[in-house]
Amino acid sequence: MKSGIALALAALYLIWGSTYLGIRFALEGGWPPLLMAGIRHVIAGGLMYAVLRARGVPAPTRAQWPTLFAMGVMLLALGNGLVCVAEQTVSSGMAAVAVASAPLWMALFAMLRGDRPTRMEWVGLGIGFVGVVWLNAGSSLTASMTGLVALLVATIAWSFGSIWSRGRDLPSPFMAAAAQMLLGGVVMIVAGWTIGERFHAWPSLKGTLSVAYLITFGSIVAFSAYIWLLHNVRPVLAGSYAYVNPAIAVMLGAWLAHERFSASELAAMGVILLGVVAITLAKAKRPKPKAALAVEEGTA
Fold this sequence. Notes:
Layout: H1 2-28, H2 33-54, H3 65-86, H4 92-99, H5 102-112, H6 119-138, H7 145-164, H8 173-194, H9 205-230, H10 235-238, H11 241-256, H12 263-284
């Protein structure tokens, strides 16, 4: 069991931490952002759906499909799709750190639903939002208004969708994930085509292999590892990817894509992650209410 947990955590940290760089390589290889994200999730969701149905897992009911559609729009079409849009002008490491602020927004939306934060969660919220303001005001994000807005909307949509989904009537976790990927993927393809995204030439081999990596490892393998962890370890350990992935993404971006960060940006990243850690630890100390599972594969 211990070796299985270690392998699952390693997959979660390394694979989800690397998906931001995979997105960048796919974009550089000629894949339009929304079409790439849509095709990725339609294929991954379609494969998962077919395998689950072949194994006898019930399909979503008619009443569940509208909820799955709304979650697919918020978590994937807006959450993941806009991250891909942002990475046209923002580094993969910076995108990962911006997305890491999602637990801060989730705590805020949970508070608006009546889930009062503990004192430690308030501290984490305060620290985290100081880091968010610092990062957005004093970093290269200010040079890309499109990237800044896309990351902000993506993170808020993901966070709101995750909280909104709690208590909803949903199918089994894997089937819910497959259906959301299918629906969210279709929405992204339609949106990309509508705004004029086209393949003006064949994507490069590197870009296509990156998309294949995102489909197989980012959308299927890592998500399966996450679901397995949720059933075998404490939620706080399964959710630790929220503050590990950005560090992995920054290191991979610097190593493989020669991304560079200023001292101010690195300090702001550290403050954000400190706030996320504080909130995560605070949640670990109080009972976790039963909630419907949202697709928490990260917005990448």
